[in-house]
Amino acid sequence: MKTIRNLYKTNESKAKEIYSEVIDKLAYVLGNLSLILGVSNIAIYGEGSSEWLAQQIEMKAKSLSPNFNFSVRYGHVRDAVERGVSLEAAVNYVKKTFSKSRTSKL
Fold first, then answer.
1. Are 75 and 44 in contact (CB under 8 A)?
2. Which terminus in the chain has less CB density within 10 A, N or C?
3. What pLDDT score does 47 carry?
4. Strand-strand pairing, 41-44 and 71-74
5. Are 30 and 59 spatial neighbours (Cβ–Cβ below 8 Å)?
6. CA-to-CA separations, 11 to 4, 17, 48, in angstroms, rounded
7. What's the rounded Cα separation, in Å, for the pair 15 and 33?
8. Whole-angstrom distance, CA of residue 19 vs CA of residue 53
9. Is 74 helix (H, G, I), strand (E, B) or coil?
């Protein structure tokens, strides 16, 4: 399993071949969810996730539709299993809320 997870580091073309179906489906689903929910930033966490996978999903989504306009990044939280995306959502919500309230008062 470790070999498969790190394959992109030694043989990117083989990694793309193996991961192509996963990347295609994730790009399609995340693209649709981003439109439905109005999300422009997506973070992926968990075992098997990587910067490379995030980049591949983002590139594939942009090739599927010009309406899929979101960025994907790899989350670096050590305890991602416990915290998951709820932490990321909370941080983004606070940033967005405070930046709106500060700019509206100016």
1. yes
2. C
3. 72
4. parallel
5. no
6. 10, 10, 16
7. 26
8. 9
9. strand
- Please give the single-letter amino acid code of residue 58: E
- CB atoms closer than 10 angstroms to residue 1: 7
67 Cβ partners below 8 Å, 6+ apart?
Answer: 31, 35
> Which residue, among 1, 8, 3, has the nearest Cα to 74 in the 3D structure?
8
Q: Which two tokens mark 53? A: 């996978």
Whole-number Å distance between alpha carbons of 42 and 37: 11
The pTM is what?
0.65
- pLDDT score at 55: 94
In tens digits, what is the pLDDT along the chain, a chain of 106 residues?
667 767 777 877 887 888 888 899 999 999 999 999 888 888 887 777 888 889 999 999 999 999 998 999 887 666 555 565 677 777 888 888 887 655 555 5
